[in-house]
Specification:
- About 60% of the residues lie in helices and about 0% in strands.
- It starts with 5 loop residues before the first helix and ends in a 7-residue tail after the last helix.
- The longest helix has 26 residues.
- It has one domain.
- It has 23 helices and two strands.
């Protein structure tokens, strides 16, 4: 009789948990998924396919009764210019098409891109993508670990980190989509290393293009194929002249997602390449690495403490036969990610639960966590490991609930406020006085919050 696959069973259970939790959160209850940053990521779709209006003049004529809170744009010589790139719009597209077709076939809802079918479609789109992500992550981790470790890692990444919040409560944000693409990239990199097949080269190129278009800092993931696949690519090219054509086609696939974006910039600004973030910049000489990792405003290891186990995982993975070739590229990516991401003027990345900018790097953290978990398994410390994971899951679930009730503030937390609400279900007295709002104008101009005015 075939033994049960713990990881497959765990993946199914996690999909059910995400479904149930999603049904009880704000985007589903209030049918409001296209809000805040998401409205700007998404605006390309109604602008192109409903209004044929790339200058976004339709923004001023949307019915007030629809759940629309505005699109964040920059002004370019009197024209509206979307601040964010259109990478996410590609991934929203399947849900958008279904919702748009539905509104065309019936007259109950407005065909304006923001009525109920569009809101629900975006939530469902993200939820289904999270299902794919879980099963793909299970497959990716099978290159490194055995079934029980994989099952534990799946529960850890989904339930003990803020990935959970962004699937169920902010389904349109970029992080869960980038998470999916990074897992797919990891699979294609390792499969090309093993097999040198054309399909993995093509998938790798297209995924990298989408990742960078969604968030330019995702260029850091280019380290994976450069480090792990260069030697195998050279062998691939030497095995036949036709393979050079495949390489050219792969490069084209990597560039392909940028072509509509460049056309959009050309139409609005007259320039093929345009920096759409205005005065927002990086301050590479003044990165806030300690605050980003251990600060109480949004610190990665404060709100996702299970990831601390990834640090010794670097050493353990380096001593793991067959997998140590991943140690250096993972370490390089994470180190540079900390420097680059925490050099952004808004190093806390606005509103949100935990250090959301690091979520797309969780598939790499999962490998390091798995190496640490494997050592604890080998040392017969399974009960200790299960206890730690359960505690971290419980803490994350509780703090996710706290965040939904604003007991954990979206951007004004500090050490005093954190410990005053730690494991609390009610607001402490004078809680608002403990919060410390970030000095946005100061950070925008100087890259830090220490200016006097």
């Amino acid at each position: 009789m075939k033994s049960i696959s713990y990881s497959k069973f765990g993946a199914i259970v996690l999909c059910l948990i995400l479904t149930l939790l999603s049904l009880y959160t704000k985007p589903w209850k209030k049918q409001r998924a296209i809000v805040y940053d998401v409205a700007s990521y998404y605006a390309y779709l109604p602008a192109k396919f409903i209004y044929q209006d790339l200058e976004l003049n339709f923004i001023g004529i949307l019915p007030k009764e629809e759940p629309f809170e505005g699109v964040w744009v920059n002004d370019y010589k009197g024209k509206r210019l979307l601040k964010y790139t259109m990478g996410l719009a590609y991934l929203y597209f399947p849900g958008f098409v279904i919702a748009d077709t539905y509104t065309v076939l019936q007259s109950k809802y407005n065909r304006n891109g923001y009525s109920l079918p569009y809101q629900l479609a975006l939530s469902i789109n993200a939820l289904l993508l999270s299902f794919f992500s879980i099963f793909l992550l299970r497959y990716f981790l099978s290159f490194f670990f055995k079934d029980k470790i994989i099952a534990l890692l799946l529960f850890t990444i989904v339930l003990a980190t803020n990935y959970l919040h962004y699937v169920i409560a902010e389904p349109g944000m970029s992080h869960t989509y980038s998470f999916f693409l990074v897992v797919l990239l990891g699979i294609s990199v390792e499969k090309f290393r093993q097999q040198s097949q054309v399909k993995w080269l093509l998938i790798m190129a297209l995924v990298l293009g989408l990742l960078v278009l969604i968030r330019p800092t995702n260029i850091l993931f280019l380290v994976l194929p450069l480090w792990l696949n260069t030697k195998h690519l050279m062998r691939f090219l030497q095995s036949g002249k036709a393979n050079y054509l495949y390489l050219v086609f792969a490069i084209f696939l990597g560039i392909l997602p940028f072509i509509p974006q460049m056309y959009y910039w050309k139409e609005i600004t007259g320039q093929w390449i345009y920096y759409s973030y205005g005065e927002e910049n990086f301050f590479f000489k003044n990165p806030h690495i300690w605050k980003g990792l251990f600060g109480f405003r949004k610190g990665l290891f404060i709100y996702t403490p299970i990831l601390l186990f990834s640090i010794p995982g670097i050493y353990f993975l380096a001593n793991q036969k067959g997998n140590k070739h991943w140690v250096l590229p993972i370490s390089m990516i994470l180190i540079f990610a900390c420097w680059v991401l925490f050099s952004w003027w808004c190093w806390w990345y606005g509103g949100g639960f935990g250090m959301r900018a690091m979520i797309e790097f969780y598939p790499l953290f999962a490998i390091l966590l798995g190496a640490s978990f494997q050592i604890l398994f080998n040392l017969k410390l399974k009960k200790l490991l299960y206890t730690i994971v359960c505690v971290c899951i419980g803490l994350n679930l509780f703090q996710t609930w706290q965040y939904s009730k604003t007991l954990i503030h979206w951007e004004s937390m500090n050490q005093k406020a954190y410990f005053r609400v730690f494991l609390k279900t009610r607001f402490p007295e004078n809680y608002d006085q403990l919060l410390k709002q970030p000095k946005v104008k100061c950070a925008l101009k100087y890259g830090h919050e220490n200016c006097k005015n």
